Structure formats: C-alpha cells, structure tokens
From TrEMBL:
Keywords: Acyltransferase, Transferase
Cited InterPro entries: Acyl_CoA_acyltransferase, GNAT_dom, N-acetyltransferase
GO cellular component, one term: cytoplasm
Designated name of the protein: GNAT family N-acetyltransferase
Pfam families on file: Acetyltransf_3
PANTHER family linked: [RIBOSOMAL PROTEIN US5]-ALANINE N-ACETYLTRANSFERASE, GNAT FAMILY, PUTATIVE (AFU_ORTHOLOGUE AFUA_3G00765)-RELATED-RELATED
Family: Belongs to the acetyltransferase family. RimJ subfamily.
Length: 205
C-alpha cells in the first residue's frame, strides 16, 4: 500500500477547522498559549531532566512540523474557530504524531484548546475531522489517545467519539514536570462505520 504524503491539507466542519500552522500565526499562537497558561499547564508535555534544550524559534518549529508532515510522520494542525461574522481565529492544536506504516499503521492524537471556546464541541469535532482523515486518506488502522486520569474534559472527548478504553499505562509520558500515568484509548478503522467519526457527533455540530 502506498504511503499517503498529502500535505498541506485543511479540513472544515461548520465553524471548526483544521489547517497547517503558519509562520504568520506566531503572535496569535503565543497570545492564546499565554492566555491559557493555567488552563493547559496540568496537561502540557514537558522535557525530562537532562534533555537538551531544542532552542527552536517559532519559525523553526513551523518548518520542522511541516517537514514531518510532508515526510508522512505526523499531521500537525491548528484548530480554528470561525465566528458568525466570518472571522476565523486560532484556538488550539491537534496533532496526530508517531505515524507508523508497514504492518502497524497507527498514530497518536494529542490536542489542546482555548478555554474561551471550551464546551462548544470544538475538540470532539477537530478530533473527528483528523481521525476521519487519518483512517480514510492516510489509511491508518489504529488511532490512539493517551489521557491523564485526572483530565475529565479530555476523557469526555474520547467518550463522545466512542474510543475504546485499553487500560492504564504507568509513568507513560512526561507531563507538567513529572512522569505521569495515562489511560489509553484507541479506535481501529474497522470500528468506524461509513458515516465516520463526524457521524458520531450531534447533528448540530
């Protein structure tokens, strides 16, 4: 099976969209991250002690993400929200990383969102968009999401989309300064019907 290398790709469902991160997003990205520092801190991935500082500028980060996407290693999107006025703004990120081909064909989804739009179905819709693309275009067989047991908001996201719980992985990922336990959730392509993950969301999304 030929590896999918289609990038850049943008996806849209109602007011919620996914598109590649751009160098011109720098001010908006830093503004959203700063405004949501306390909101995202408990769930932010961190570097274990002794890890060299990457020294990446924002522009270098964008270039690295784009290179990884073009090589088929990840799908790094920003999440956008379009106001009734038609103005679209950056409100988060969704990345499907660690994409593996061959006999595995899996990837892992991670995300964060601006607290200002929390509760509007933004993350479930973004994950459904990205997941449907991963299954139908990239032809992944398995999509995983690892969530800290204390993260009730994120647990609701996978519940809404019908991800299957696979148990606890102790000290799985370095988050907020320490190795943290994570609950693992997954879906296989054959578990998703033709309506896709978007079809699992309420019609008004």
């Amino acid at each position: 099976m030929r590896r999918a290398r289609r990038w850049p790709v943008s996806l849209q469902h109602g007011p919620i969209g996914l598109r590649p991160l751009r160098a011109t997003d720098e001010d908006a990205w830093y503004a959203v991250r700063a405004r949501n520092a306390a909101w995202t801190l408990p769930w932010d991935a961190t570097r274990p002690p002794g890890t060299p500082d990457s020294g990446l500028t924002f522009r270098r980060m964008v270039r690295r993400l784009d290179a990884d996407a073009r090589a088929g290693r990840s799908l790094p999107w920003v999440i956008t929200w379009t106001e009734p006025s038609g103005v679209s703004r950056l409100v988060g990120q969704l990345t499907i990383s660690g994409i593996t081909y061959g006999s595995a064909r899996w990837g892992m989804a991670g995300y964060w969102v601006d607290r200002d739009v929390a509760g509007r179905g933004v993350v479930p819709t973004a994950l459904a968009l990205g997941g449907d693309h991963a299954f139908t275009v990239v032809k992944l067989h398995r999509l995983e999401v690892a969530i800290r047991p204390e993260n009730a908001n994120s647990l609701r996201v996978v519940e809404k989309l019908g991800f299957r719980a696979e148990g606890l992985r102790p000290a799985y990922m370095h988050v907020n300064g320490a190795w943290r336990d994570h609950l693992m959730f997954a879906l296989h392509a054959e578990e998703v019907d033709p309506a896709g993950l978007l079809g699992r969301l309420p019609a008004d999304r």
